[in-house]
Amino acid sequence: MFNLSGSEIVVILLLALIVLGPEKLPEAIRRFARVYGEIRKMSTGFQSEFKTAFDEPLRELRETAQLTKDAVMKPLQEDPTPSVVADASEADPPQKDTET
Q1: In terms of DSSP H, where are the helices of the chain?
Q2: 38 — phi, psi (to 5°)?
Q3: Per-residue DSSP letter, 90
Q4: Which end of the chain has the least Cβ crowding within 10 Å, N or C?
């Protein structure tokens, strides 16, 4: 969460030891760990609620998009050859170009 390296953690612990002293440091670490755990729990709960709230609408949106895609693609995937051949047989033969 904080993306700290080992040396940064050591510096923070040394500063805490200097500021708080050896008597208060263990209790401060316990408090920090408790608060950090609560924050993580709240974050996980928020992510879970967010996912639950948006899963159903997103699923419906994906289904609608797929149905629309299928409706558009189906006519394009059918073989247009018979109608093109029928139209071509009714056409006039090509004219010779007499201009040179």
Answers
A1: 6-77, 81-89
A2: -65, -40
A3: T
A4: C
Listed residue (70, 67, 47) closest to 59, CA to CA: 67
Q: What single letter denotes the amino acid at residue 87? A: D
Query: Which tokens is 54 given?
Result: 């948006």
Residue 44 backbone phi and psi in degrees, to 5: -65, -40
Q: What is the sign, positive or negative, of the torsion defined by CA atoms of 41, 42, 47, 49?
A: positive
pTM above 0.85, yes or no: no
**Cα dihedral 27, 32, 35, 40 sign:** negative
CA 24 to CA 13: how far, in whole Å?
12
